[in-house]
Design goal:
The complex is a heterodimer of chains A (634) and B (187).
Chain A lengths: L1 H19 L3 H9 L4 H32 L10 H35 L8 H23 L24 H29 L12 H33 L12 H35 L6 H14 L15 H29 L8 H23 L2 H7 L3 H31 L5 H28 L14 H30 L40 H8 L12 E4 L4 H17 L3 H20 L4 E4 L1 H12 L1
Antiparallel strand pairs in A: 1-2
Helix pairs in contact in A: 3-4, 3-5, 3-15, 4-5, 4-6, 4-13, 5-6, 5-17, 6-7, 6-17, 7-8, 7-9, 8-10, 8-13, 9-10, 10-11, 11-13, 11-14, 13-14, 14-15, 17-18
Chain B lengths: L3 H30 L9 H4 L2 H26 L3 H31 L8 H33 L3 H34 L1
Helix pairs in contact in B: 1-5, 1-6, 3-4, 3-6, 4-5, 5-6
């Protein structure tokens, strides 16, 4: 309704603005066809921030509905709309906000931190982004054309089977996740190879920044988990398109099979989201405490331990399946064990701060909010790891409060800290500190208001996803919760204002190459980072190389140090393949079979054409590199 | 800088690992659903072991011939390479034809993928392997075309080495299908 009119209008306005300022050519040459990881990262980030605004708007709709949904209350939306809203809220927040910000940070920080010029497969990186983008359009497009799924973010069958969801909504959900998921899988491979093969000379595994470690274990999780998502969505799709019987209630189908499969992906997925946040805080806390990270080795061991354990806990999402006491006990104990390496991390950060010279810049404020919030979330998580207790609170708002507690407190706070932290490196100026801190406090207070009442409601028996209820004592809790969402909304408004204001005042907020007195290599290059990242590839001999180089005095490079640079050429193939994948998915959703075939063949032909091209790189001569580097450093 | 070939090879091996996770999911689904025949016939009534054995031998031979092609290109014998790769393609097509014949027969007898959860899982698992074989066939044909088009030894070698790994991988997956679906299904 509102969205159906608002979104096209916004798009038309943006298109008109681009035309008016004659920026189409610039956009095409510099952004759409780019294979530069930093630019791809910025595009990921921009999409994710816009999606965050939409996701919070969805949240506001959900909580308004429940605030008014008490006995004698009124309905803001129909139940059907409400179901679409909570489904799209979850899908957008996980896949297009959290995953988007995560890949933004991978792209922005990883190549710079390991001292390389680009990722291992720059073209593949562009394909990943455009697949993600195509998935994003599908989710949002469904608002206007045909409606979205009502099945919740994981789309449990048999509700999502053709029999109960005959419309295109579930198909939108399947295909937007499917193509975005394939993009994520490709990125996972890409960054794993980048970290393994592209590190600067001397950077052994145990000299990598912890953020890079966290990305490494995350990519392992992505590579193992995402194929299971692809498989489960494909099977559900076969049920719907071809009339098969994997998860149907008839024909021998087994819906619990789907729930096992999707959570075998879904549980590692939440660790995929949170581990980079752990990595970010490891960088942030060390930088702003002016101290070496406490317990580097235990940090690495903890990351790897979490990586393993995250694959043996998925069944705790459905203890109520009836797998029996032994199975539940196994998964319950495994779940509790994960709390140990996570606790190790938290203590490491606190010990890093201990006797450090702490400065409370906004990334550090985010850390403080994280440390408190995430711990509360972790404790309620361990509580629910006890199967007997889980039976009581399964599928209640208690669970909803728990996972928002860890995802907002862990993932969102971490990524928002990272945006503030690395923003100067990308753009050459700071984000406004005051507004940044205000945003953090509004988020923190809003979060507590929005979710603490849900714990209580959950214990009182309120189930998740309900939109009306008959118990008048619940009303105040729901109202407080709705107020909390509004406060979070104010926090986000602060952030949007912060971005706009910082762009406006960018001359005064100009940042040097090393604005935070950083420790890792990315702070050794000028800000904004040049497109070739490093004029001269650095050599590493210890953890926090840049910090110690600064102590010893940074030597100016000799003219003979400059070498020719080989970089990948821009290409439109990434964009075109992404858009064709979008057409392919759209055709499948609407059962336009000829278009399915045509677009599929088009994708195959384009991939073949691209692999046939052996001349995808260009060289910048050493003399020119030297000239550009001296200008950037002047 | 890292050699392009080195990176591509690592990346491709990782892709194969992800692909094996995809197949793992399908195998797991098949194992769970293999007895959910919805009152219809199970594997022991539907599968013909001798037919599948011939199919298997054809695929294994194609892998062997693919290895010969690998030797040929490494020694720079282009004609021989094209011959062996051509034979690989021919055997691959024969395998695919047999698979489609089996599918066609099952569907014609009313045992299509819609008949039961067991058959859905069967068609999807074996069909996904067949789809991979199809991709491999197209890839091999493109390689021959690329050889005639540009013929730079180094580029062809790099691309072919990836194809060879892919083809052997599909062989291994088929061994699992042969064991889990057919041998265990018939007994």
């Amino acid at each position: 309704m509102g969205a159906a009119i608002g979104m096209p209008l916004t798009l038309v306005a943006i298109a008109a603005a681009i035309t008016y300022f004659k920026k189409w050519g610039y956009l095409w040459r510099e952004w759409i066809t780019t294979v530069d990881a930093k630019r791809i990262g910025i595009m990921y980030g921009s999409v994710a921030i816009i999606m965050l605004a939409r996701g919070v708007f969805d949240a506001l709709m959900i909580r308004s509905q429940t605030a008014l949904g008490g006995p004698g209350g009124s309905h803001l939306f129909s139940t059907d709309t409400y179901q679409q809203v909570f489904t799209s809220h979850g899908v957008i927040m996980i896949f297009f906000v959290a995953m988007g910000l995560m890949f933004a940070l991978f792209n922005i920080a990883v190549p710079l931190m390991i001292g390389t010029r680009d990722v291992a497969f720059p073209f593949l990186n562009a394909v990943s982004f455009w697949l993600f983008f195509a998935g994003m359009i599908l989710v949002n497009g469904s608002l206007i054309f045909g409606g979205f799924s009502i099945g919740g973010w994981l789309g449990y069958p048999p509700l999502t089977e053709l029999q109960y969801s005959p419309g295109p909504g579930v198909d939108y959900w399947i295909w937007s996740l499917q193509i975005a998921g394939i993009g994520s899988l490709l990125s996972g491979i890409n960054f794993f190879v980048t970290i393994l093969k592209h590190r600067a000379p001397g950077m052994t595994f145990m000299r990598m920044p912890i953020f890079v470690w966290s990305v490494l274990v995350t990519t392992v999780l992505i590579m193992i988990a995402f194929p299971m998502l692809t498989a489960s969505l494909a099977l559900l799709s076969l049920d719907r398109l071809m009339g098969m019987h994997f998860f149907t209630s008839l024909g021998g189908g087994n819906p619990m099979m789907y729930i096992n499969l999707i959570w075998a992906w879904g549980h590692p997925e939440v660790y995929i989201l949170v581990m980079p946040a752990f990595g970010i805080f490891s960088e942030v806390v060390a930088t702003f405490s002016r101290k070496k990270l406490f317990g580097y080795k235990t940090m690495v061991i903890a990351l790897i331990a979490i990586m393993f354990f995250s694959f043996v806990v998925w069944q705790h999402h459905f203890f109520t399946m009836g797998a029996g006491g032994d199975v539940n006990a196994f998964f319950g104990i495994m779940t509790m064990i994960i709390a140990i390496p996570t606790g190790v991390k938290l203590f490491n950060w606190l010990f890093t701060m201990y006797r450090g010279r702490i400065s409370f810049a906004s990334p550090m404020v985010w850390f403080m909010c994280f440390a408190v919030t995430f711990t509360i979330g972790g404790v309620t998580g361990v509580l629910m790891a006890v199967p007997a207790i889980d039976f009581q609170v399964h599928n209640t708002l208690f669970l909803v409060a728990h996972f928002h507690n860890v995802i907002i407190g862990g993932v969102v706070f971490g990524y928002l800290a990272a945006i503030t932290y690395w923003f100067p490196k990308m753009f050459g100026f700071h984000l406004h500190e005051g507004l940044g801190k205000a945003a953090a406090y509004f988020w923190q207070v809003g979060f507590l208001l929005a979710f603490m009442p849900l714990y209580a409601l959950g214990l009182m028996g309120a189930v998740r996803r309900l939109d009306n209820y008959s118990d008048p004592t619940w009303i105040p809790f729901f109202i407080v919760s709705a107020v909390g969402v509004v406060v979070v909304g104010v926090g986000i408004a602060c952030q949007l204002l912060q971005i706009a204001y910082s762009i406006w005042k960018r001359k005064e907020l100009r940042a040097s190459g090393d604005p935070w007195d950083g420790r890792t290599l990315e702070w050794s290059v000028p800000s904004p980072a040049p497109f070739y990242n490093y004029a001269i590839i650095p050599t590493v001999s210890r953890v926090d190389e840049w910090w110690y180089q600064k102590q010893e005095g940074v030597k100016a490079p000799k003219d003979s140090d400059y070498k020719d640079i080989v970089l990948p050429k821009n290409t439109s193939f990434g964009f075109v393949i992404g858009m064709t994948a979008f057409v392919f998915s759209g055709a499948l959703i609407w059962h336009i079979w000829w278009l399915v075939i045509v677009s599929f063949i088009a994708v195959v032909v384009m991939i073949i054409m691209r692999t046939m091209d052996d001349f995808t790189e260009y060289t910048i001569p050493a003399a020119e590199v030297m000239k550009m580097d001296k200008e950037a450093r002047a | 800088m890292v050699a392009k070939r080195d990176k591509a090879q690592l990346g491709f091996w990782l892709y194969l690992m992800t692909d094996s996770m995809l197949f793992t999911s399908l195998f797991a689904t098949y194992m769970i659903l293999r007895n959910s025949t919805n009152g219809g016939p199970g594997g022991s009534e539907l599968f013909s072991m001798s037919f599948v054995l011939v199919e298997t031998l054809i695929l294994l031979t194609s892998s062997y011939v693919c290895g010969l092609a690998n030797l040929a290109i490494h020694n720079g014998r282009k004609k021989e390479f094209v011959m062996y790769l051509g034979a690989t393609i021919a055997l691959g097509i024969a395998f695919l034809t047999m698979e489609l014949t089996e599918f066609g027969k099952l569907i014609a007898e009313g045992h299509g993928p819609q008949a039961s959860a067991f058959l859905s899982a069967f068609f999807t698992l074996v069909g996904t392997h067949g789809l991979h074989i199809t991709v491999g066939l197209i890839w091999a044909m493109v390689l021959i075309w690329a050889l005639y088009r540009q013929g730079r030894q180094e580029d062809i070698l790099r691309k072919f080495s990836l194809f060879a790994v892919f083809w052997h991988f599909l062989d291994i997956v088929w061994i699992f299908i042969f064991t889990i679906v057919y041998v265990m299904g018939v007994k």
